[in-house]
Amino acid sequence: MKSKPAPEQPAEPQQPVPVVPSVPTIPQQPGPIEHEDQTAQPAPRVRHYDWNSAMQPMVGKMLQADGVTAGNVLLVDSVNNRTNGSLNAGEATETLRNALANNGKFTLVSAQQLAMAKQQLGLSPQDSLGTRSKAIGIARNVGAQYVLYSSAAGNVNAPSLQMQLMLVQTGEIIWSGKGAVQQQ
């Protein structure tokens, strides 16, 4: 007898095999870009100025100005850099303080007194007072009658030095001068 083909059973549907996504690899950070020495930037040029030659004649004129009375206390504010570049304003300030040392007219507020007064106002000792009003505020704080506000302005290669002597009580500018500063 011929065997009858068994009735076909419907095949059980195949369960799909779950696909587990692979974990992506984390790319490595590239190392620092290393340049050959030839491409290194040259160090910025350090400029040296003859502050003393610019300041001495101005200080001489200021000490002779009308309204300057001997025996008063003078606050010398840091020289502000208002040029188009970088210059060492600390060196300029030091030169100015030295030009005024033993001037016979004023007693200078010491650098220590100035640093303490700045600290009381929340300023760092390196902060230039920046504005005339801040300079006058500090001067009142240290008992100075005068403030010398100075700034270097213009082209950093040939800056001009501007100075203003102000009366602390009124804020009045009683003397001002301007001079060219030469590079050494």
TrEMBL record:
Gene Ontology, cellular component aspect: periplasmic side of cell outer membrane
Record GO terms (molecular function): enzyme regulator activity
Compositionally biased spans, kind Pro residues: 7-21
Keyword list, A-Z: Cell outer membrane, Cell shape, Lipoprotein, Membrane, Palmitate, Peptidoglycan synthesis, Signal
Coiled coil: none
Pfam family, one: LpoB
Keyword Transcription: no
Protein's UniProt name: Penicillin-binding protein activator LpoB
Lineage: Bacteria, Pseudomonadati, Pseudomonadota, Gammaproteobacteria, Enterobacterales
Encoding gene per record: lpoB_2
